[in-house]
Design brief:
Elements: H1 2-7, H2 15-20, H3 35-104, H4 110-123, H5 127-144, H6 151-171, H7 175-195
Length: 199
């Protein structure tokens, strides 16, 4: 304070004393509204928001189209597996008949025969899994068309489809079916990544 008094040659009451007096200093706000600047800023903000909205809509459409293409590829794999599944079941049936013949001749092992019969019952039929997979795929495609946040539902459906594909893969003892299972797993992995970007 003494420095201020000396610099400005203040005499009499000290600056400290003056600052203790109520209402000696007051702040007055000036109303310097700049309507032109406000208009420019508002216009720029509106334009930026419209551009963001347009960009998000475009990105959403591209994502939806890409997911639809991948869903169609999965459906194609399902169709191919449906063609091969009866052949695989027939193959298992033939193996079981052969084991039964061996058993009838006394050359077969009963426990082995029962094991093979159980395997046949479990692996010969993937229709149930294919039906559920198709149902999930249809729900996925329908959900893509909904105009509301659907990210979590899509993520859940991808997980369910992956579960069915894994089961089909464990049952499919056929190179052609295995090839389609690998293709579907690859597509589902891509879909899972893309679904993470959907609200």
């Amino acid at each position: 304070m003494e420095t201020v008094q000396t610099k400005y040659d203040l005499a009499g009451p000290s600056l400290h004393d003056m600052l203790q007096v109520e209402n000696i200093l007051f702040v007055e706000e000036e109303n310097n509204e700049n309507k032109e600047l406000e208009g420019i800023l508002f216009s720029a903000l509106t334009e930026a928001l419209e551009s963001l909205k347009k960009m998000r809509n475009q990105e959403g459409l591209e994502l939806m189209n890409d997911l639809s293409v991948q869903a169609a590829k999965i459906h194609k794999s399902i169709t191919i597996i449906k063609e091969y599944a009866p052949e695989v079941a027939l193959h298992y049936r033939e193996k079981l008949v052969q084991r039964l013949a061996e058993f009838a001749e006394g050359a077969g092992d009963e426990s082995r025969l029962l094991t093979e019969a159980a395997i046949l019952a479990d692996k010969a039929d993937v229709n149930e899994e294919l039906t559920r997979l198709e149902s999930h795929l249809l729900q996925f495609s329908d959900t893509l068309e909904v105009d509301e946040p659907v990210g979590r539902k899509l993520d859940f459906l991808v997980q369910e489809m992956n579960r069915e594909v894994n089961t089909i893969g464990s049952k499919a003892n056929d190179s052609r079916m295995t090839r389609e299972v690998v293709e579907m797993k690859s597509l589902l992995e891509k879909m899972k990544e893309q679904v993470q970007n959907i609200e």
